[in-house]
Specification:
By secondary structure, the protein is an alpha+beta fold. It has helices spanning 44-60, 80-89; strands at residues 9-17, 20-27, 33-37. It has a domain at 3-60. It is built from two helices and three strands, in the order βββαα.
Length: 90
Amino acid sequence: MRIADLGDIQIAVTRKANGIMSVGICAENRNDSLHMDTQKDETVDQFVVRIKSMLRSMINGEGRKVEEVPKPEVKKSPTFDQQKKELTTK
């Protein structure tokens, strides 16, 4: 599966306490969202590895089921010739 199969992805990183960050990831085509808190002394490389593993688990998770709504039938309006014919036959 490709990263594009997740649809729009939102990653929110907010400061929680002294050096601790809260991270939330949600995707358009997934039912669940994932959250984690970083360690106080976590490096950027460790952070990126954790984000990558979160994205992999989202890809392997259950997708959102989209129900297709049936399109309503569009009635064609009668043409000028059809209207003229109806009027002349009456």
